[in-house]
Amino acid sequence: MTAMPRKVALFVPCFVDQVVPQAAVDALTVLRRIGCEVIFPADQTCCGQPAFNSGHWSEARPCAERFVRVFGDSECVVAPSGSCVSMVRTHYPDLLPVGPLRDDAIALGQRTYELTEFLVRIAGVNDVGASFPHSVTYHASCHATRELGIYREPLELLAHVRGLELRPLPAEGDCCGFGGVFSVKFGAVSAAMGDTKLANVDSTGAEYVTSIDPSCLMHLEGVIGATKRKVRPIYLGSILAQQQEAAQ
Questions:
Q1: Backbone dihedral angles phi then psi of residue 139, each to the nearest 5 degrees
Q2: CB count, 10 Å around CB of 103?
Q3: How far does CA 217 lie from the centroid of its chain?
Q4: What CA–CA distances, in Å, run from 116 to 79, 82, 101, 231, 239?
Q5: What pLDDT score was predicted for residue 183?
Q6: Which helix (H) or strand (E) holds 114?
Q7: Is residue 82 part of a domain?
Q8: Which end of the chain has less neighbouring CB within 10 Å, N or C?
Q9: Residue 99 is part of which domain span?
């Protein structure tokens, strides 16, 4: 493994902070392991995605402006969430079409990365010394694949995890049904999509289903609980954080 030390600002999305904080802790663990100096700007808050996706752009705009001010001087920003990174990189130019922060927002978006994207594309690392002796199947989340173009990076990292058996997932790129506010507005449809996704997961016989988006896994965990399935969701960064002592 070739470590590439650099200073990285860790962006922890609001739902990660409130619901799955271990994802942020594990992302931090992996970044430090490869030699990064990680800082956590304490003034950070929501990127504005929930309001933006609901059509409330005027409410989302202050969140975007705050994000740019808080992280504007960062060399790199890394987040354990493809959807939030996509919000910054893909949608901030729409949200801030004019004004003094527009150019800064566009530049910052090009320095903001999802964890696996950063590891493989920027740090040049595909082996982080992880060990996870279990069978795993991978769900390719919508925002990561369709808006960020992330596909090979998670698979490349999983391929170098010691003891891990990666099982192909049928229709791996099909939506899990979460979609943020979609799951609230169209609960029955969202749950049905999650059940279809998990039927494909079941067909692999894997012990775990993983993704680079904890939001997808949060949704699938709810469907798993309601349908009493045995498969367990785990954030991909949490797999990467595992080493031999923790895996035993």
A1: -95, 120
A2: 12
A3: 10
A4: 9, 9, 28, 23, 12
A5: 66
A6: strand 112-114
A7: yes
A8: C
A9: 7-122
**Total of domains in the chain:** 2
Q: Are strands 208-211 and 232-235 parallel, antiparallel or unpaired?
A: parallel
Q: How far is CA 163 from CA 136, 167, 210, 232, in A?
A: 11, 13, 16, 17
CA distances to 14, 111, 153, 228 from 158, rounded to whole Å, are 26, 24, 9, 27
Residue 234 falls inside a structural domain: yes
Is residue 2 included in any domain, yes or no?
no
116 and 11 in a single domain? The answer is yes
Q: What CA dihedral angle connects 183, 188, 192 and 193, to 10 degrees?
A: -30
DSSP 170-239: TTTTS--S-TTHHHHHTHHHHHHHHHHHHHHHHHHT-SEEEES-HHHHHHHHHHHHHHT---EEEEHHHH
CB atoms within 10 A of CB 129: 16
pLDDT band at residue 4 using 50, 70 and 90 as cut-offs: low
- Whether residues 150 and 240 share a domain: the answer is yes
Residue 158 lies in a domain: yes
pLDDT digits (tens, 9 = 90+) for 17-74: 999 999 999 999 999 999 999 999 999 999 999 999 889 999 999 999 999 999 999 9
Nearest CA among 171, 173, 172, 195 for reference residue 183:
195
pTM of the model: 0.91
Structure tokens at 218: 């949060």
